[in-house]
Amino acid sequence: MPRGRYSLHDPHDHTPLAEEHFQCAPGPSGWRYVSRLTAPSGDHLGSVDLALDELGRPIRLELHAASWQIRGAALDGVTWVRTDPTGTHATEGNARAHAFTGSSPAFLIATARLLRLTPSAPATRVRLVALTDPVLAPLTVDQSWTLVEREAHATDNGPLTVDEYQVTALDTGEQHTVHLSGDVVLAAPGIELEDLESPPSALD
User: Fold this and answer.
1) What are phi and psi of 107, to 5 degrees?
2) Alpha-carbon distance 79 to 185, whole Å?
3) Are the beta carbons of 31 and 112 closer than 8 angstroms?
4) How are beta strands 191-196 and 30-38 bridged, if at all?
5) 90-109: average pLDDT
6) Distance, CA of 108 to CA of 188 (rounded, Å)
7) Looking at the record's lineage, which domain of life comes first (predicted)?
C-alpha cells in the first residue's frame, strides 16, 4: 500500500500551492486513493477519496476544497453533485465523459488505469470532466494520451517499471509529459513526489 507525499505547485511560475499526503491500494473491486491537502501555511485545504472499479471507471469520488464538495461516479457517462460551502445549494451535473480529472495526482493514475495503453498503441482520445480549483467547478475537456516509453529501472527492491505518457489538450494543442510507476506519479507538471514509504503497486 503506497503512502507518501506530493508537493503541488503552479506549473508556470512554480508557486507552492499545497502538499498532498496520500495512500492508495488495489482492492477486490479495483483501486482506491485517499489523501488530505494542506496549504504551505499548514492549514487544511481539502481531501480526495477516489475508488475505481476493475476497468478503471470511477465508482465513487468525493472531493472537498475550499468548503465546496463534489460527489460523483460513472453513471450515464459521469454524474456528480456539487454542494456549496453553506451546504444549502446542491447542483447536479452529468456529462458524456469517461471519467473525472483535477489537480490531484490521483486523476492521472486513474486515467492511465482507464486507458491501459501499451507502448505500441496509437494515441487515445479521452473525454474528462475537470473539477477545477479552487471551487471544484466542472469543465469538460478532451485529451489525447500516448504511452511513449516503458522502462525498467533497477532498484534495491527489484526492477521499477516507469511509464512515460504524452498528454495533449485537444482544445489548445498544449502537450506535457507524465511519468508514472504503477499507482504513483513520479513527475508531472505541477506535481513532485517528495516522499514514498513503500513501492508502487502494479497497475494491473
Assistant:
1) -75, -30
2) 26
3) no
4) unpaired
5) 97
6) 9
7) Bacteria
Residue from 9, 3, 39 nearest 21 by CA: 3
Amino acid at 78: V
Tell me the three-class secondary structure of the chain, residue by residue: CCEEEEEEECCCCCCEEEEEEEEEEEECCEEEEEEEEECCCCCEEEEEEEEEECCCCEEEEEEEECCEEEEEEECCCEEEEEECCCCCCEEEEEECCCEEECCCHHHHHHHHHHHCCCCCCCCEEEEEEEEECCCCEEEEEEEEEEEEEEEEECCCCCCEEEEEEEEEECCCCCEEEEEEECCEEEEECCEEEEEECCCCCCCC
Q: Is the peptide bond before 58 cis (omega within 30 degrees of 0)?
A: no
Residue 63: which H helix or E strand, with range? strand 58-65
Q: Which amino acid is residue 24, in one-letter code?
A: C
Which residue shows C-alpha cell 479521452?
A: 126
Per-residue pLDDT at 156 exceeds 80: no
Half-sphere exposure of 1 (CA within 13 A, CB side): 8
In the chain the first and final C-alpha atoms are separated, in Å, by 14
Residue recorded with cell 503541488: 8
| CA separation for the pair 55, 36 (Å, rounded) | 25
pLDDT of 33: 97
